[in-house]
Amino acid sequence: MLAGGCYCGGDVSTDLLQVAIIGSGPAGYYTAEALAESIHAVSVDVIDRLPTPFGLIRTGVAPDHQSIKNVTKRYDQTASRDDVRFVGNLSIGRDVSVAELLDLYDAVVLATGALQDRKLGISGEDLAGVRGSADIVGWYNTHPDYVALTPELNTPSVVIIGNGNVAIDVARVLAKTEAEMAGSDISPKAKDAISRMPLRTIRIFGRRGPMDASFTPKELGEMGRLERAVPLVDKADLPSMDGDADLEPKQRKVLAALRGFGDHSAQEKPVQVHFGFYARPVEILGHDRVDGVLMERTRVENGACIGTGEMFTVPCGLLISCIGYRSSAIEGVPFDERLGRFVNNDGFISDRLYAVGWARRGPTGTIGTNKPDGAEIAKRILNDVQPMDKPGRKGLDALIAKRQIRAVTFRDWQKIDAAERQAAEGENPRLKFARLDDMLDVVGNEAIETQQVKK
Ligand SMILES: Cc1cc2nc3c(=O)[nH]c(=O)nc-3n(C[C@H](O)[C@H](O)[C@H](O)COP(=O)(O)OP(=O)(O)OC[C@H]3O[C@@H](n4cnc5c(N)ncnc54)[C@H](O)[C@@H]3O)c2cc1C
Description:
GO molecular function, one term: oxidoreductase activity
Bound molecules: flavin-adenine dinucleotide
Protein name: NADP oxidoreductase
Binding site for NADP(+): 163-166, 207-208, 219, 365
Largest sheet: 6 strands, mixed
Cofactor: FAD
Keywords: FAD, Flavoprotein, NADP, Oxidoreductase
Strand order of the largest sheet: 4-3-2-5-20-19
Helix content: 25-40%
């Protein structure tokens, strides 16, 4: 059986399995890759609400970490296969429903990620100057949903809540100089605004100790090599070296980096980045705008994080919570409000409907974690679902035409990509389009073409 197939018109064979994947991030593309590389004849449509593919690789991964974004070369290969098609600028739940996709395809996979900020759930969270990382990261990465934001940067003091790599990314992007951001694809608006900030202090807080932080050594280590910012830590928060032998290598490296930070002094550089542990926010203070946060000291007992009742106030004009994300619910799909993701049993939601990646597991793991996840879901679909001679691509394209939606193809994305690369200045890899209309102008007005995969 020819899995690669060729693009050509004609009827769809009854043993061609037609799958729609909603979301073109890592989870979507790894699932498409596993399906297409199986011994079965498949036709996979990878659908995204944006005209640009690759999810958080484009809009989440930090703009100064370009080498990480190279993973998209692998997705390019999958996207260029005859049996995999990208359908961009089509929002499922708004333009087309999941129920409609289930009518059109043999199986549907939700790979929609998790891009809503989890709330801190404390008073003052609605004050101006309190932001979630989805806002800030989307803004500096030119995500069309966030480009109009004007974060409250006219402050010397920033508090970041959270002890993962997203907290480090946000701190680093704020702390770097313009020169240090050369070679990145940060939004020029964000770069200018950050360079005008009267920044003096960034305080990163984790409610548990350094051994519970989910920083990776590489990202943490980078904080020790910034031009104008010095990382600081209170040595009293760090465990003694006696227990080092029992630690995992990764924890040992994190601890070594933090011990190094403990040797620095605030006077070394104009901006200080403090790593604070065993402290949780209990109230955000301010009238019209945040001017501080009330924190409570904590201790960890038998694995539980307990408040000690000892309070202290930290002044700040911008508070950014980096405490994780939730998926967005989609009509007709069972959603667990508490966990913030689709109700699923190892990726199975209901007959012929599956979830993968962050939409399945919640916001955990690295880009690579989505690969085995995609392979597992592909295998499950191939085992569970029989081809049913459904309308597939042709049916979707008819719906798109009827609803006059300007869906885009992978070739269209390549035009956008080329235009962005051409517009780049200096060492920067690209200048991203901020507005959907500008992207669609580059694409032109050809209607999406129905091409069937032949067995
Ligand atoms: C700020 C940040 C930085 C990160 N940095 C790194 C890093 O440096 N290294 C690393 O290994 N990992 C990093 N990660 C983690 C990595 O990005 C995730 O593991 C990965 O992107 C999750 O893949 P996904 O496909 O599940 O979701 P996503 O990448 O979020 O993709 C979901 C896709 O679904 C689309 N979509 C959503 N809703 C709809 C809808 N209704 N209709 C159609 N399309 C829809 C979205 O537009 C998006 O393209 C980072 C994460 C964040 C948040």
